[in-house]
C-alpha cells in the first residue's frame, strides 16, 4: 500500500464516526483491506453472505431494529440485488452500499464487462443515488456523504469505487 | 411427502403460536404468512411484507442482530425460504441466540395458483437447515403441536428453524397496511428506536 492513499482506512473511520457497526459482504479483492480492518475492529460485525441481496435484507432489518449497516460488494453483485432494493425503498429505509467496480478500467475478464458497465444504470433504474469515485483520496469523504444522505434522508445510496483505484486484476498476463 | 399428507390448518396454527409469542417480534414473509399473522390480530411488533421474495429471513436476521435482547421470529413460506435458502448459512454463521424461523410449508406456490413447489417431492428445508449448521430444527405434520412448537420458536436457544407441513386452504383475505413506510415506522416506534 506504500505510496497509495489508504481509502479503506478512511472508510473505516467514516463507519466508526456514524455508528455503522455491521458490514455485510460478498468479498471482492478491492475490499480485502477494509474487510480485514472491520474484522479486527472491536464493536464491528462482519456478516459474510452467500449472495448479495441478503445484505439488503440484513441492512434493512438492522435499521428497523435501530442499528446501521453497510453492504460491501463487487459490481457484479449489484446485478443480484435489483429486486431486493425494492425492500428498503418500500420501507423508506436507508440502504448504504460500497461497490468496488469491475468491467470498467482496464478489465482483463470479458465476463465482467456487461454488469460492470450496467452497474450504475441498473442502480439508478431502481432509485439508488450513485456516487462514482475515481480518486483514492476522495473515497472517504464521498462514502461519508453517501452514508449521511442514506441515513438522514432515508434513501438508498451506492459509492462506486472505480477500478482505476482498486486496480485491474491481470491474471498474470500482460 | 405428498401434498395430500399435509393436515395442518395454517390460520389456527399461526393464531395459536402468536397467542404464545410473549414479547417476540414477528417478521413476516410476503403473501400468506403476512395474511395469517394479520388475521390473528394486528400488532406494531409485526413487520408485514408485500414483496422482496427471499428477504424475510435476512430482514429478521438484521432485526435480531440489532435487537439482541428481543426474541425475533420469522414466519415465512416454503417458496420464499427456498428463494433465499443460502441465508440459512449466514444465520448459522452469525448464530443469533434470539432468532427463530418458522416455514409454513404447503409444498406449493399458493399465492400464484397453487403450482407445485420444490418441497412437494424431495426437498426438506429442515434437513437443508441442519446441513447449513442450524442444529436445532423441528418438523410438525399434525395439528395440535402449537404449544410445543411455540416453546421451540419463542424460547429454545437460537437459531432454530421449524417446518410446519400445512394444508392448502381457502382462507378469507386478511390484508394489513401495505404502505411499507407506515409498517416500518410503526415497528421502529414500538421498539423505541
Q: In words, what does this structure look like?
A:
- The complex is a heterodimer of chains A (174) and B (193).
- Chain A is an alpha/beta fold and 174 residues long.
- Chain A is built from 8 helices and 6 strands; from the N terminus they run αβαβαβααβαβαβα.
- In chain A, α2 (32-40) links the parallel β1 (22-25) and β2 (45-48).
- The mean pLDDT of chain B is 95.
- The radius of gyration of chain B is 15 Å and the shape is globular.
- In chain B, the strands form 2 sheets. A 6-stranded parallel β-sheet of chain B has the order 2-1-3-4-8-7, sandwiched between helices.
- Chain B has 8 helices and 8 strands, in the order αβαβαβααβββαβαβα.
- The chains are: A alpha/beta (174), B alpha/beta (193).
- Chain A binds chain B through residues 22, 45, 47-51, 53-67, 69, 83-84, 86-87, 89-93, and chain B through 27, 47, 50-67, 84, 86-87, 89-90, 93-94, 180-181, 183-185, 187-188, 191-193.
Entry keywords:
heterodimer, A: 174 residues, alpha/beta, six-stranded parallel β-sheet, B: 193 residues, two-stranded antiparallel ribbon, 8 helices
Secondary structure blueprint with pairings:
The complex is a heterodimer of chains A (174) and B (193).
Chain A lengths: L6 H11 L4 E4 L6 H9 L4 E4 L4 H12 L4 E6 H6 L5 H6 L3 E6 L12 H13 L3 E5 L5 H15 L2 E6 L1 H4 L8
Parallel strand pairs in A: 1-2, 1-3, 3-4, 4-6, 5-6
Chain B lengths: L9 H9 L6 E4 L3 H8 L6 E2 L8 H11 L5 E6 H6 L3 H8 L4 E7 L2 E2 L5 E2 L8 H8 L3 E5 L5 H10 L4 E6 L14 H12 L2
SS content category of chain A: alpha/beta
Strand order in space, largest sheet of chain B = 2-1-3-4-8-7
What's the SSE pattern of chain B? HEHEHEHHEEEHEHEH
Number of DSSP helices of chain B?
8
Number of strands of chain B: 8
In spatial order, strands of the major sheet of chain A run 2-1-3-4-6-5
| 3D shape of chain A | globular
Radius of gyration of chain B using CA atoms only: 15 Å
Average pLDDT of chain A, rounded to a whole number, is: 96
What is the beta-strand fraction of chain A? Answer: 15-25%
SSE ordering of chain A: HEHEHEHHEHEHEH
Amino acid at each position: 500500500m506504500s505510496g497509495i492513499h489508504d481509502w479503506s482506512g478512511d472508510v473505516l473511520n467514516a463507519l466508526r464516526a456514524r455508528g455503522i457497526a455491521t458490514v455485510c459482504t460478498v468479498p471482492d479483492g478491492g475490499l480485502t483491506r477494509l474487510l480485514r480492518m472491520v474484522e479486527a475492529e472491536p464493536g464491528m460485525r462482519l456478516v459474510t453472505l452467500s449472495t448479495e441481496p441478503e445484505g439488503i435484507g440484513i441492512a434493512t432489518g438492522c435499521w428497523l431494529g435501530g442499528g446501521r449497516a453497510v453492504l460491501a460488494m463487487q459490481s457484479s453483485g449489484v446485478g443480484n440485488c435489483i429486486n431486493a432494493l425494492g425492500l428498503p425503498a418500500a420501507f423508506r429505509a436507508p440502504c448504504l452500499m460500497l461497490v468496488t467496480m469491475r468491467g470498467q478500467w482496464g478489465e482483463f475478464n470479458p465476463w465482467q464487462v456487461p454488469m460492470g458497465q450496467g452497474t450504475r444504470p441498473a442502480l439508478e433504474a431502481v432509485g439508488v443515488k450513485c456516487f462514482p469515485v475515481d480518486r483514492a483520496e476522495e473515497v472517504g469523504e464521498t462514502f461519508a456523504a453517501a452514508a449521511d444522505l442514506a441515513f438522514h434522508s432515508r434513501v438508498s445510496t451506492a459509492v462506486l469505487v472505480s477500478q482505476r483505484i482498486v486496480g485491474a486484476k491481470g491474471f498474470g498476463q500482460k | 411427502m405428498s401434498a395430500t399428507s399435509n393436515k395442518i390448518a395454517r390460520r389456527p396454527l399461526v393464531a395459536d403460536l402468536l397467542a404464545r409469542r410473549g414479547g417476540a417480534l414477528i417478521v413476516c414473509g410476503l403473501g400468506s404468512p403476512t395474511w395469517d399473522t394479520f388475521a390473528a390480530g394486528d400488532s406494531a411488533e409485526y413487520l408485514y411484507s408485500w414483496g422482496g421474495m427471499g428477504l424475510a429471513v435476512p430482514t429478521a436476521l438484521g432485526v435480531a442482530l440489532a435487537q439482541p435482547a428481543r426474541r425475533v421470529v420469522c414466519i415465512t413460506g416454503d417458496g420464499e425460504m427456498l428463494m433465499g435458502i443460502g441465508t440459512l448459512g449466514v444465520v448459522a454463521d452469525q448464530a443469533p441466540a434470539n432468532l427463530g424461523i418458522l416455514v409454513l410449508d404447503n409444498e406449493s406456490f399458493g399465492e400464484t395458483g397453487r403450482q407445485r413447489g420444490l418441497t412437494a417431492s424431495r426437498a426438506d428445508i429442515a434437513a437443508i437447515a441442519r446441513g447449513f449448521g442450524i442444529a436445532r430444527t423441528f418438523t410438525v405434520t399434525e395439528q395440535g403441536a402449537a404449544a410445543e412448537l411455540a416453546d421451540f420458536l419463542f424460547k429454545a436457544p437460537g437459531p432454530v428453524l421449524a417446518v410446519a407441513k400445512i394444508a392448502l386452504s381457502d382462507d378469507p383475505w386478511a390484508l394489513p397496511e401495505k404502505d411499507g413506510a407506515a409498517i416500518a415506522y410503526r415497528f421502529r416506534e414500538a421498539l423505541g428506536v
